[in-house]
Amino acid sequence: MRIRDGHAVTMCADRRNSLCYQDFLTLLEKGNPAGEIVVVTDNLSSHTSVSTREWTLGHPRIRQVFIPENACWLNLQEPWWRMFRRQGLAGQQLASGSDIRTVTAVATGQLNAKAKPWIWGATAATERVNRLKATYKI
């Protein structure tokens, strides 16, 4: 997900391994044709593998930054996946890999259509209170 505009790139993969991660990085690079790409990621072995580090040497626009261990709140991927699951997968019964790929593409497109810049942290308290008042007529 690009924080400056909230657009996301998703990909379904058969496995969580270094080669599939490198395929994703290739897709990410194509989706962002200009400028440096900083990928903030966790310390999954496919993200830190020798093969991935060698791959990134051939792609100088891509730079990986790893979040510290035990600091999951810094990973913006988690709240984005919550939105994705709630809006794209809620109530779905997926029977095959093809179904998963289709739903993923549709949900990503829908989220990207209404994407906004991503801001860390909760909304301001007054904004939350006003939303609650409007919802519950307090």
Task: Outline the structure in words.
The protein contains six helices and two strands. It has about 140 residues and is mostly helical. It has a two-stranded parallel ribbon. Helix 4 packs across helix 5 (about 95-115). The longest helix has 17 residues, at about 95-115. It is globular, with a radius of gyration of 17 Å. It starts with 17 loop residues before the first helix and ends with a helix. About 5% of the residues are buried.
**What composes the largest sheet?**
2 strands, parallel
- The ordered string of helix (H) and strand (E) elements is HEHHEHHH
Helix vs. strand class: mainly alpha
**What fraction, in percent, of the residue positions are helical?**
40-55%
Strand content: 5-15%
**End-to-end Cα distance:** 36 Å
**Outline:** globular
Widest sheet: strand ordering: 1-2
Which segments are poorly predicted (pLDDT under 50) over 5 or more consecutive residues? none
Q: What would you report as the Rg, rounded to the nearest angstrom?
A: 17 Å
Name the average pLDDT: 82
Counted beta strands: 2
- Determine the number of helices (DSSP H or I, runs of at least 4 residues): 6
What descriptors fit this protein?
49% helix; globular; 138 residues; mainly alpha; two-stranded parallel sheet; 6 helices
Give a short overview.
This protein is mostly helical. 49% of the residues lie in helices and 7% in strands.
How is the topology of this model organized?
Elements: H1 18-31, E1 37-41, H2 45-48, H3 50-57, E2 62-66, H4 77-89, H5 97-113, H6 125-136
Helix pairs in contact: 4-5
